[in-house]
Amino acid sequence: QITAVMSALATAGLNPVLVEVPSDQQQGIVLSVQHEGQEVNRGSDIRVEVSTGPAEPETTQVPGGLVGGDENNARRALQREGLQAAVQYQASEDVAEGIVMDVNPDEGAEVQPNSQVQVIVSSGPAIGFPEPSEDPSNPGGGNGNGNG
C-alpha cells in the first residue's frame, strides 16, 4: 500500500515525505496523506503518515531497595511507580516484624503499570503452642483433684 501511494505521488510530480507513527493499525498501513483530494503545486512536499504498528505497551520497573526495608516504605515506593502492593505476612525467626523479606516479581523487573507486586512481610517469630513440660506417660505426683 505504501509503495503505491509513494509512486502515485512521485508520478504526479509531488515530493512524498514519509512519517512513521505508532498506531493500532498494522505496520506499513498508510494512515493519512496530506492534502488528499486537494490541488497542490508540483514539487510540493506531501506528508504521508504510515503506521509502525501498535506502540509497545509502557512498562515500569519494580523499584529496588524494597527487600530489607520497612513495609510502609515499600508500599509508598510501589505506589510512586504506579504499582499496587499485595502484602502477605509470613512468620520469620530471622527477620524483624514489618520488614520486607521478598517481592514478586523481583526488584528491577519490568511490569505493566498498575500491576500487583506481591510483598512478603515478616510477621515476626511464629507463635506456637508451648511444648509439654512433663512426659505425658508419666502421670507425675498429682492426685488428680487439681490440688497437687
List the helices and strands and how they pair.
Elements: H1 2-11, E1 15-21, E2 30-33, E3 45-51, E4 60-61, H2 71-80, E5 84-90, E6 100-104, E7 110-111, E8 116-122
Structure in words:
- This protein is an alpha/beta fold and 148 residues long.
- Helix content is 14%, strand content 28%.
- The chain contains two helices and eight strands.
- A three-stranded mixed beta sheet has the order 1-3-2, covered by helices on one side. A three-stranded mixed beta sheet has the order 5-8-6, covered by helices on one side. It has a two-stranded antiparallel sheet with strand order 4-7.
- The chain is rod-shaped and about 110 Å long.
- The N and C termini lie far apart (99 Å).
Note the main attributes of this structure.
148 residues, three-stranded mixed sheet, single chain, alpha/beta
**Residue share in helix:** 10-25%
Number of strands: 8
Oligomer: single chain
**Secondary-structure element order, N to C:** HEEEEHEEEE
Contiguous helical run count: 2
- From the alpha carbons, calculate the radius of gyration and give it in angstroms: 34 Å
Q: In terms of per-residue confidence, which ranges show pLDDT below 50 for 5 or more consecutive residues?
A: none
Shape: rod-shaped
| Alpha-carbon distance between the two ends | 99 Å
Mean pLDDT: 87
Instruction: Output the strand order for the largest sheet.
Output: 1-3-2
